């Protein structure tokens, strides 16, 4: 059985980068979960920082450089994608968006995608839902239910149910789609009906 192709797109600007660190952890988690099922995975990492000039030139000339073209072909041929961006001004980075602007608009159709982001504060975690998820929905990708956000404080935490738990859950959902099964969210958070929340607020007044 041929190994599955997993492409990881990471838009960190510094080296080392927390965005690259999160990308690596997600890729490793997906690889482990599929290995447990006897499936091999070829992981290809695309560092957008190294393609910044090529991406800009593509907008001006209308043609990708050989290096950029090779990465665009890798995205198109992938069985699944992990896309990770730093959050700037409550949204994805310009470099991240520019790369997906030059990806063919049919390349991600039906392709499983795990979205993730890094930022300095947990307040920006909703950027995954109001910026990244709609963008990949527009590109007709199949985005897994769990998105992973890592704030600066997450890296030092001992977190069985924090960052590590979110990584494992999202990786499991992507692995299921790569293995040909519908992705299911394994979240165990209790959902409290709105009427019950409203009644509790009234009782406090």
Give the SSE map.
Layout: E1 4-10, H1 18-35, E2 41-47, H2 52-61, H3 66-77, E3 80-88, E4 91-92, H4 94-102, E5 112-119, H5 127-138, E6 142-143, E7 148-151, H6 163-178, H7 194-204
Parallel strand pairs: 1-2, 1-3, 3-5, 5-6, 5-7
Antiparallel strand pairs: 3-4
Helix pairs in contact: 1-6, 2-4
Structure description:
- The protein has 205 residues and is of the alpha/beta class.
- It has one domain (4-204): Rossmann fold (3-Layer(aba) Sandwich), CATH 3.40.50.
- It is built from seven helices and seven strands; from the N terminus they run βαβααββαβαββαα.
- The protein has helices at residues 18-35, 52-61, 66-77, 94-102, 127-138, 163-178, 194-204; strands at residues 4-10, 41-47, 80-88, 91-92, 112-119, 142-143, 148-151.
- Strands 1, 2, 3, 4, 5, 6 and 7 form a seven-stranded mixed beta sheet that branches.
- The model is unreliable at 185-191 (pLDDT under 50).
- InterPro entries: CE1759_FMN_reduct, Flavoprotein-like_sf, FMN_Rdtase-like_dom, NAD(P)H-dep_FMN_reductase.
Helix content: 40-55%
CATH classification class: Alpha Beta
Q: Provide the residue-averaged pLDDT.
A: 89
Q: What distance lies between the first and last C-alpha atoms, to the nearest angstrom? A: 63 Å
Q: Kindly state the number of beta strands.
A: 7
Number of domains: 1
Order of helices and strands: EHEHHEEHEHEEHH
- The name CATH uses for the topology is Rossmann fold
The CATH homologous superfamily is called Flavodoxin domain
Class from helix and strand fractions: alpha/beta
Largest sheet: 7 strands, mixed
- What is the overall shape? globular
GO molecular function: oxidoreductase activity
Keywords: Flavoprotein, FMN, Oxidoreductase
Protein name: Oxidoreductase
Organism: Prauserella flavalba
